[in-house]
Amino acid sequence: MLDIHELTTPPSLELFSELVELLQDAVASGSASGWTAVPSTKEARNYWKEVLEAAGRGERRLFVATDNHVCAGVVQLALPPRENSRHRGQVQKLMVHSQYRRRGIGLALMQALESSAVAAGLSLLVLDVHAGSPAEGVFRRAGYQCAGTIPGFWRSASGALEAGSIYFRRLGGAAGEF
Known about the structure:
Blueprint: E1 2-6, H1 13-28, H2 41-56, E2 60-67, E3 70-78, E4 88-96, H3 105-119, E5 124-130, H4 134-141, E6 145-155, E7 161-170
Parallel strand pairs: 4-5
Antiparallel strand pairs: 1-2, 2-3, 3-4, 5-7, 6-7
Helix pairs in contact: 1-2
C-alpha cells in the first residue's frame, strides 16, 4: 500500500539506505538529478545527509513515498530564505525508483508537496527539468505550465549540453494575484 509522508525526523538506517539506492537507480536510469554519472554509495550518502540537514534547518521539505514500507520515490520542496521570494518554492529532485514507475507515484508525490506548500502559504511553485524527459509529462499532468526552454541548460553524462525546461504552477487562489 502506497504511503506518502514528509520526512521530519532522521530516517531509519533501512530507509536511509533505500534513499541512497533510489538516487543511484534514478541516475542510472537516465534522471541526472544533478549528476553526470551514478554517484558512489559514499557520494549518495553525503548527498542525503546534506538534504536531511537542510530539512532539519527548515530550508527544504522531503516527501517520501513508500510501498509496503519500501522507498518508491521522493520529491523535495526548497524554501527560499529571502523575504521577497518567500511566496514561492522550488520543486527539486522528483525521483521514482525504476521498479515503481508508471503507477502514479510521481503525481501523488507532487500532490503531497503541493498540499504542504499551500499550508505553508506558498502561492507559486517553480521547477526545471530536462527538456523532452518523461518527467515533463508528470509535471504537465499535475497542472504545471512551461515558461520556456533554455538551450545548454544541463550537462549530460557524455559532457554534451542539453536543453532544460522551466515550469511553474500557481497554487490555491494565487491565480488572481498575477
